[in-house]
Structure formats: C-alpha cells, structure tokens
Specification:
Chains: A mainly alpha (about 300), B alpha/beta (about 375), C mainly alpha (about 260)
CATH superfamily of the largest domain in chain B: P-loop containing nucleotide triphosphate hydrolases
Order of helices and strands of chain B: EEEHEEHEHHHHHHEHEHEEHHHEEH
Number of helices of chain A: 13
Structural class of chain A: mainly alpha
Shape of chain B: globular
Largest sheet of chain A: none
Order of helices and strands of chain A: HHHHHHHHHHHHH
Oligomer: heterotrimer
Helix content of chain B: 25-40%
Low-confidence stretches of chain A: 299-304
Number of domains of chain B: 2
CATH class of the largest domain in chain B: Alpha Beta
Largest sheet of chain B: 8 strands, mixed
Strand content of chain B: 15-25%
CATH topology of the largest domain in chain B: Rossmann fold
Number of helices of chain B: 14
Number of strands of chain A: 0
Radius of gyration of chain A: 24 Å
CATH topology of the largest domain in chain A: MetI-like fold
Distance between the termini of chain B: 32 Å
Helix content of chain A: over 70%
Mean pLDDT of chain B: 79
CATH class of the largest domain in chain A: Mainly Alpha
Structural class of chain B: alpha/beta
CATH architecture of the largest domain in chain A: Orthogonal Bundle
CATH superfamily of the largest domain in chain A: MetI-like
Chain lengths: ~300, ~375, ~260
C-alpha cells in the first residue's frame, strides 16, 4: 500500500518533469503577460525555484512540501494549489456521492429482479439495459439528457452548479453507467447465492420469499458487490472529468482539464496526486468493509 | 391409519434440462405416521433428495408433474404459497445434509435460531423491516424472547455455553455443533414432521450416533414423524421403523425395517445389503454393486433396475411393473419375486451396523 | 459488420468528409443528407463513415500495443519471479491506482493535443491489466506437468514460453482484448471530446460530438449521430467479448449435474 502510494507520487511528479519545454521560461512568459523573458531572468528564476537541481532532489523537496500539505502554487494566479482544489473538491464529491446513489438505486433492484426471475422478460430487459449502459459514452448521454430534459421538456437547467436541480442530470449521467456494471454484478452474485443451501434452509423455515431475498440472499450477495462499488470510484473519477465538462460544473475534472490546456503543471500534479491517493485509500476502505460484511474474513484464524 | 401424518401418492418430479426431461421421482408412494421414523434408502441419484424437497415443495428447479402429497389432510401439491409457508413454519421442518452449507454464513447462529422462533410465533405476519432488524421497526421484546428461546433450544441440543454462543457465527462451530444448531432451527417451530436429508453424512461416527439418538428421542418424546433420507443401510437399520427403498425414482420395496432388511424380496435391496457387508468372512471378497444408476432421462417404461439385475427377464424390460402387497405393510415392485434364496445374505446381520464413512455426493 | 462499414463505407459515400459547403450549413436530416449536415455544411453520414475507419483503426492499434506490452511484462514477471516480478508488479499496481482516463488525460495533455499522443497515452496506461492476467496465468501454468516435463527435457525458456505458455494464455487474453476494444474506443472518443485527441477537421467521433455541442439547440443530430455510432460500436465489442468469455469459460453446468 505504502509502496503504491509512493509509486503514485513518483509517477505524478515524473510525468511533469519529463515535460518537453522549459518550465522556467513558460512560467515567466505567463507572469510577464506574454512577453519573452530575458535569459538572465530565466536563469535567475531557475536557481531561485531550484529547477536546476537533479530530479531526485526536486522530487524529495516536492514530497516534503506535499507531506506538509503544500502542493505549490498555480503558475498563473498566486493561488496555492491546495486552495484551488479545496474550492472545487466539494462539487466533485457531491457529484460522486449523488451518482453513486443513483447507481445503487437503479442497479440493486434491477440486479435482484433479474436474478430472481432468470430468463424472464424482466431479466432480458435489465440485461440489455445494462449492456447499453456499459457501452454508452457518458459525454453523449449527458447531451442526450440535456436535449431531452432541458431543451425539449425544460425540466432541468442545462448546466452550472447550484441547487439540487443542477445535480440531477450530471448524477444520472454518471450514475447510469455505473449502474450498468453494478447491476450485472448484483445479478451474478444473487444467482450464485440463491443456489446456496442456506437459502433452501431459509425457505424451509417458512420465511416469506421477500425476507429470504432481502435478508438472507442480499446480505451474502453484497460481499462481492461492495468490492465493485468501491472499485467503481475509479469510474466516477474518470467520468466526473467528462461529465463536469459536459455540464460545465466547476469541479476537480474541469480544474484538471483547464490546467492541462493552460499547462499549469502544479495544479495538474496536485489534482492527479489527489485522485491517485483517493483511489488507493478507497481500495483500503473497501477491504475493511469487506471484512465487516463477511464474518469469516476478519477472524482469519481457525474455527473454534 | 388414524395416525397418518404424510401420504405421498404417485409422486412424479421432473427436471427440464438441455438434454431432455429428467424423471427424478417417478411415481413414488409411501406414508409416514406420527411417532414413526421412516427411512428412504437408495444410492446417489435414486431420487431421495428430490423426494424430500418435493414434500416441502422446495423442488425447484424441478416440477411436480403428477401425484399428491397429503399432509395432515392438506394436499401440498395444490396448496397456496401462504399455506405452504404456514406449514413450513409450524408443522414441517427440514434438516439438510451439509451443516456447513445450510447455515447462512453472515448471520449469527443465535439470530438464525431466533428467526425460526419468530416465524413460528408471528405466523403469517412477517414484516420485512422487522426481520431485517431495522431498529425502529423491529419488535424488540419479541426478539429478546426469541433469543431466550434460542438459548433454551441450544441447551436442549447440548450445545455448550449457549448464551455465549448465541452471537457466534457458523464458521466458529464444529461440524457436529453446526448440525445441532440446524436441528435447533428445525425444532424451533415445534414441528410434527421432520424431514432429515442425509443429516449425518457429513459428520464423524460419534456425532452421527448422537444425532441419530436425538432423532429417536424426538420420536419417542414428542411423537414427531420423521422421514430420514439416507444412503447408509446401517443408519436406516439402526434408526428407522419402516423403510422405503428407492431406485430410479421408483419405490422398489417398502415395509418394516426388520422385515425388509432381514428378508429382502427385491433383488435391488438384496444387492444393497450384499455390498454393505463389511465384516464378512475373512478372505471372501465383498461384492460391489456392478453398474451405476441409470440416467433417468425420459423415464422408465419398465423396471429401472432391470439392466443391473441378475434375475431380469424380458418381462422386467417390457411393460409396467405392478406393486404387490406381501402383507399389509410389506410392498414389492418386482415381477420375478419370489426369488431364490441368496446365500450372500447369510451375512446380512453384519450389515446392519452404520458404516458412517461412506460419502454421498448427491445433494 | 462494423469492419465492413469501416472499410467500405468511405468508398460509397458521395461527399467529402472535410470539404466545406457553407451553403448547406446545419441542414436537418433529409434524403440527400440522411443524417443532416454540420456547421460547415459537411455531410454527417460521410464523416461518420470515415470516423468509423479512424476509430476502429486506432482502437485496434492501441489494444494491440497494450496486449503486446502487457503480455511481455506478464510473461517476464511470471517467469522470472524474484525481484524482477516484484518490481514489475509494483509498477502495475501504481498504474492501476489511477483511473485510466485521468492518467491518459494528463499524459496526453503534457505531450500536447494530437491523435498520436492520445494513442500513446492510452497504450501506456492500459497494459497493466494484461500484465496482471498473463502473470497469474503463467504462475498457475508454470507448475503444471507439461511445462515441468518440457523443462526436464532440457528445452530452453524461450522454447517453453513460445511452445507451451503462449497457446494456453491466448484465450483469456483475447477475451480481455475484445472487451478492452470497447473501452479504448470510449477512451479515444472521450479524450477527443475533451479536445486532446483528433483535432478538427478530422472526422473523429469524439471530436465531432465536441464540435456539435455548440449547435445543440439548432442541430440535435450533430451530437447524437456520433454518440449513437460510438455506443453501437462499443456495444458490439462488449457483446462479442461477453460471448467469447462465455464460450471459453468451463461449459455451463448442466442442470442435471446439480441434482
């Protein structure tokens, strides 16, 4: 885990380091409003910013700052990167959480419905829907929703942030793709579990079908599902970049894309690092949840 | 016949597969009385387990194509889902083969026993949120009572330290303890009929003896009717009052244990006896069953055993085999009976001890 | 089917994908222009057909690069073991620690917006899962008897790898590649949509979608036509991958075996 985190930071830093072009010149050009800086100014800047040092020295210095919570400063504004991220992060988190909720709300019932009636019309519809959902590019789905819901039906605003109404379309766009993946998984997991002997036991106790499904089967099926939902965070972050651009939401995704086009590398570094770290930590959290859901895991010892 | 609890008549259970229709149970008939243990004996694939599940109407993905299952005056083949639920919660309980698989791994043993108690008490009114344990909607006092009852049941089943084990998970139990917990679940509803499908197959010999002893005392003390499914002649001989020998989904022979297993009339029963002889004369080879049970696709027009039978004639292979009554209890489905005495049966008494070691891979 | 369209489509289309015709700007779908025209009067269908060729070509190329790198790394890691394995796998873990598109976005962004750079970025980012798959297959195969036997016969490592390992890992790798193709197409389209990939006037689906969004109020077909194309293509690869996977997985257990 620590090694991976280290690798993440190294990769993030190295990527920017190998960038073609002289960062000192780029920065000074920007700061001077587009004028070409003098050679002396560039040299001086290099020395003062430590850009002449070897890679390892620079990396260690950068890591030291990062560990103290300093991600450097934007090339363009004097705003620290951490501030820029802090400004945008809440919007992305809200979007991520909302789309996760949408995804779970669609996928779990759909997956259960398919698994309970395998081969039925409901099952085929759900499976086909899931296949379409997986294959749907979310930037197109976003525009499709804008065209239908905003331009034709005029129910939701086209773009921007604000109240709940601004959240609905982006969350649905991002959530539906995830829903497709989760629904397929819920279906497989439920089919496996419904075949298990303890489900027969539950039926033979005289339990109602619904209780058998929602208590005995779902709880077991959730174990693999939680893993995937956690791993889907990767999808959320991938998708958030695109969806934020589509709906022009100021979030981490738009921050990253703007920074890339502006070649504002400290921000690119900061956001990439943050996303990598979030991802690694989520995987850890998934492992922990996993052992809570399945009592057989956290003991790890011999049965008494 | 006033004590008759369960009457299965001409039961046909079928499975539709890619390769054709499997006639897993093909016209079986038998009865179980109160306070009686009836054994269903047969090899793997003879249709024992499907018969057991059909009685509980848990035959899915199979279908009951024909026949009636009368339990205490109710025909289970036509009963509504809620009636079936009521009967499962109050009258019929089931114990399955492998206690590792039959307990839900993610709930504590206590919860699973208490749940069974609650089903029995709150019958017909099972609310989802109550059973899911959603705090606001759960009837706390009722569940506390159910837990107390669970401790009591675990105690009756001789599970040591029941209070502390209430919150233990199935994987923390040994095989024998698990099967006792399964029995506790089954008995929580105070059933009149217990269907035990190979309850001791996965257990070691001492635990097996203990579980069988419990079944006998249930019969004697609570007047419970028990249907014991087993592939083990010894278990049946030791525990049951009557026995039904099943082959290819059909009843070959049925009657009191001491008659059928000491003076078997059907060649299949004889063969089962022969090959379970263990301590026969030193030096003499134990006869093994030649052949395997047939693939019951398409069902039988004739005796299913004919292909493996030493005494088979053309009559056995053609046409319907009628069931004859040797006396009021002992029935036989064989056209060639009475057969000549078979000297291998001289050792049959030795066969009547449970062997316990044999594994049955049918489910 | 898709390949046929991609190969022959451009030949049958009567219009040029890039030639502008400002008289016919933003025409709604009609008989002459079945999917309408865009803001510069170009026939959308023609552009889509050319885009199909481009998208499929790139996707196949990127997937092939991923497959080759990933398989090579996986073979080396699985076969060499020790610190080489350890080091390679940590690299794989690190790559997998980033959401793919985000990493590709950054790499492509640093290299500068162009189709080639997007291809590079996607290839660099995506080989890790192949490496992991191949490595685990090699590890399980290495202990199998036919491999041991071949090595006892004094065969060289290369011989064993080529003759015995590759045929056995080919099937799962091909399935992964088929499923991956859809993902790569989505990735290219996504990055192009963000402006990093193909630049206008190249008829690339993602780019077309991006330039169509300005006219979303007047010309709904500009956004939806490439969207539908991407979806159908990806859907096709997913269906293909799924069915390949089902066929290669141990035969679906027959009902009768469950009794």
């Amino acid at each position: 885990m620590v090694i991976v985190l280290f690798g993440v930071s190294l990769l993030t830093y190295a990527m920017i380091f190998v960038t073609p072009g002289d960062p000192a010149r780029t920065i000074l050009t920007q700061q001077m409003g587009g004028q070409t800086p003098s050679q002396e100014a560039v040299e001086q800047f290099r020395v003062s910013e430590g850009l002449d040092d070897p890679f390892t020295v620079q990396y260690v210095r950068w890591m030291g700052d990062v560990l103290q919570g300093d991600l450097g400063q934007s090339y363009y504004s004097d705003q620290p990167v951490t501030d820029a991220i802090a400004q945008r992060l809440p919007n992305t988190i809200i979007l991520a959480v909302a789309s996760m909720l949408v995804a779970i709300a669609i996928s779990v019932p759909a997956g259960i419905a398919s698994a309970v009636n395998p081969g039925s019309r409901i099952d085929y519809t759900a499976q086909f829907g899931a296949l379409v959902g997986v294959s749907m590019p979310n930037f197109w789905l976003g525009y499709l929703l804008i065209i239908v819901c905003s331009l034709w039906l005029d129910v939701f605003p086209v773009a921007g942030v604000g109240g709940l109404e601004h959240l609905v379309l982006p969350a649905v766009t991002l959530g539906s793709g995830m829903a497709a993946v989760i629904a397929r998984l819920v279906r497989t997991a439920m089919l496996d579990v419904l075949d298990a002997a303890y489900i027969r036991t539950a039926h033979s106790k005289g339990l109602r079908e619904r209780i058998v499904i929602y208590k005995h089967a779902l709880r077991n099926a959730l174990v693999p599902v939680v893993t995937i939902v956690g791993l889907q965070l990767s999808y959320v972050l991938n998708g958030a970049v695109v969806v934020e651009v589509v709906f022009q939401r100021p979030g981490l995704g738009t921050l990253l894309v703007d920074a890339i086009f502006a070649r504002d590398y400290p921000i690119v570094q900061g956001v990439t690092l943050l996303i990598g770290v979030i991802f690694v930590l989520t995987n850890l959290a998934v492992d922990l949840t996993y052992s809570r859901l399945d009592p057989r895991i956290d003991l790890g010892g011999e049965p008494t | 016949m006033t004590d008759q609890l369960l009457r299965v008549e001409e039961l046909h259970t079928r499975f539709d597969t890619d390769r054709g229709t499997v006639h897993a149970v093909d016209g079986a008939s038998f009865t179980v009385d109160r306070g009686e243990i009836v054994g269903v004996l047969g090899e793997s694939g003879s249709g024992k387990s499907v018969t057991a599940r059909s009685i509980c109407r848990l035959e899915e993905p199979g279908k009951i194509a024909n026949g009636t299952i009368t339990f205490d005056g109710t025909d289970l083949t036509t009963a509504s889902k809620s009636t079936l639920r009521q009967i499962r919660g109050n009258e019929i309980s089931m114990v399955f083969q492998d206690p590792t698989e039959t307990l839900n791994p993610v709930f504590s043993v206590g919860e699973q026993i208490a749940e069974s108690v609650r089903i029995h008490e709150a019958n017909g009114r099972q609310r989802l949120l109550d059973f899911l344990g959603v705090p606001l909607f759960r009837e706390r006092s009722a569940w506390t009572d159910a837990r107390d009852r669970a401790v009591e049941l675990m105690d009756q089943m001789d599970i040591p330290n029941p209070e502390s084990r209430l919150s233990a998970f199935p994987h923390e139990f040994s095989g024998g303890l698990r099967q006792r917990a399964v029995l506790a679940i089954a008995l929580a509803s105070d059933p009149t009929l217990l269907i035990a499908d190979e309850p001791t197959t996965a257990l070691d010999t001492t635990t097996q003896a203990d579980i069988l002893q419990r079944l006998r005392s249930l019969r004697d003390e609570r007047d419970v009717g028990i249907l014991l499914i087993s592939h083990d002649l010894g278990v049946v001989a030791q525990t049951c009052d009557r026995v039904v020998v099943l082959y290819g989904g059909q009843v070959m022979e049925s009657g009191p244990v001491n008659e059928v297993l000491t003076a078997p009339e059907h060649p299949y029963t004889r063969m089962l006896l022969e090959c379970s002889v263990r301590n026969s004369n030193p030096g003499e080879r134990v006869r093994s069953v030649s052949g395997t049970p047939p693939d019951p696709i398409g069902g039988y027009e004739a005796c299913p055993f004919a292909d493996r039978c030493r005494h088979a004639t053309t009559a056995c292979r053609e046409g319907y085999i009628p069931t004859t009554e040797l006396d009021s209890e002992h029935r036989l489905a064989c056209v060639e009976a009475p057969l000549p005495a078979d000297d291998a049966l001289a050792h049959r008494q030795d066969a009547l001890t449970p062997d316990g070691g044999e594994q049955d891979d049918s489910t | 089917m898709l390949f046929v369209v991609a190969v022959f489509g451009p030949l049958v289309s009567p219009y040029s994908p890039t030639e502008q015709n400002l008289v016919n700007q933003l025409e709604a779908p009609s008989l002459i222009h079945p999917l309408g025209t865009d803001q510069l009067g170009r026939d959308v269908l023609t552009r889509l057909l050319h885009g199909a060729r481009l998208s499929l070509g790139i996707a196949v190329a990127v997937t092939t690069v991923r497959l080759v790198i990933g398989t090579a790394v996986g073979l080396v890691a699985g076969y060499a073991g020790g610190w080489i394995d350890e080091a390679l796998m940590r690299l794989v873990d690190t790559l997998l620690a980033f959401p793919g598109i985000v990493l590709a976005l950054v790499i492509a962004g640093i290299l500068g917006p162009s189709l080639v750079n997007v291809m590079l970025a996607l290839a660099v980012v995506g080989w890790a899962s192949y490496a992991r798959l191949v490595r685990s297959s090699v590890l399980s195969l290495r202990e199998r008897e036919f491999v041991t036997a071949a090595r006892l016969l004094g065969r060289s490592r290369i011989h064993v790898t080529v003759r015995h390992l590759i045929p056995n890992i080919a099937a799962p790798v091909v399935v992964l590649a088929t499923l991956d193709l859809g993902g790569v197409i989505l990735g290219i389209a996504g990055l192009s949509f963000l402006g990093l990939g193909a630049q206008p006037p190249t008829p690339e689906w993602g780019t077309m979608l991006a330039s169509g969004r300005t006219y979303i109020r007047q010309a709904w077909w500009l956004v939806n036509a490439p969207g539908v194309c991407i979806m159908i293509t990806v859907l096709g690869f997913n269906v293909l991958g799924d069915s390949l996977r089902d066929r290669l997985s141990p035969a679906q257990s027959n009902q009768i075996e469950k009794l």
